[in-house]
Amino acid sequence: MKELLPAVITIGIDPHKASLTAVALDPTGRQLATRRVTVNAGTYKTLMGWAGRWPQRRFAVEGANGLGRGIAQLLAANGEDVVDVPATLAARARLLDTGGTRKNDPADAASVAHAAMRHKRLRPVIAEDHTTQLRLLAERRDDLAGERVRVLNRLHVLLRDLIPGGAPADLTAAKAAALMQGLRPLTATDACRRDLARDLLNDVRRLDRQLAANEGQTRQALAPTRSTLTDIHGVGHILAGKVLGHIGDITRFPTADHLASYIGTAPLETSSGERRRHRLNTTGNRQLNTALHTIAVCQARDPGPGRVYYLRKIAEGKTPAEARRALKRRLTNVLYRRLFKDQQSRPTRTT
Questions:
Q1: Are residues 59 and 73 in the same domain?
Q2: Angle, helix 173-180 to helix 188-222, in steps of 10 degrees
């Protein structure tokens, strides 16, 4: 007689800043137990002491990239089976189960577990590795670059009032220093402008140093991944780090079409009558979409297969913007294949 495998218990977790609530459900959806745990240094030990009675278990954490990141990462790092349940999906599960919107922590945790039992394509939570570091570094670089632009714009305004003709559009710290070297303010107000310009120049130099350090950190974090993304024309270490950081485990996307939907490079049809048109998809991961746009601009400009494809789309009657969108969609396929091949070639997961 064939031996029956033990049933898998689903444990839904509703996280908060100061506490989390866990509810265990059997495969039929019957509630087995509930536990509220205070968030502190002993949270994981307390939770596992309670959940240890069910050897065959799976955890479902609401918002594993938000408030639930801490407990989700602790569980994943210790080899537990963990899935991320979006808050909107848990809310829909609660509405279907109860027919109302009234809520409390145990009900929310049970809804998270119900959603995990019914939805077969939830994102598994994976212990943080070099791709997480790359994402953090990419986000930090975006912040630094944005601040540098703001500082340079303010410096431009001051130099416009201090120097006849103002400063060039491609202003750098070196150019600003050369322009300010011979400044002789004629009024107290101009002296104030000069002093503020010096402060802003120091800010630009500081941001340049931080951006250079960020690039070095990105190269260092990218090395263990052994990624071949930089072999693609238009992809440098910074863009490769951003792509890897935001995509993470490529196997969570069943096909390149799923990746294109996630990035927002799958065009939306806006046809009318006999006129067939597609427009830009403004949904999806905008950071990845921006990275794909940069790669597409480089490939459309420089000789190579990307430019050949771009010109062919232009010859078909598409506008330059539409041709770039088509190229971005084609590049998504290239990225998917390259990332999948790179991940398969790594013998073990980097940590």
A1: yes
A2: 160
Say if residue 77 is in the same domain as residue 119: yes
Give pLDDT tens digits for 218-274: 999 999 989 999 999 999 999 999 999 999 889 889 999 999 989 999 877 776 667
How many structural domains comprise the chain?
3
Q: Spell out, as residue ranges, where the chain has pLDDT lower than 70.
A: 1-6, 94-102, 271-273, 278-280, 347-351
83 in any annotated domain: yes
Which pLDDT belongs to residue 1?
43
Residues 113 and 134 in one domain: no
Domain span at residue 23 reads 9-124
* Confidence at residue 97, expressed as pLDDT on a 0 to 100 scale: 63
pLDDT tens track for 14-54? 999 999 999 999 999 899 999 999 999 999 999 999 999 99
pLDDT score of 122: 86
Specify the amino acid at residue 258: H
Residue at which a domain ends, from 102, 124, 146: 124
Residues 221 and 234 in one domain: no
**Where does a domain end: 225, 258, 276?**
225
Position 320 scores a pLDDT of: 94
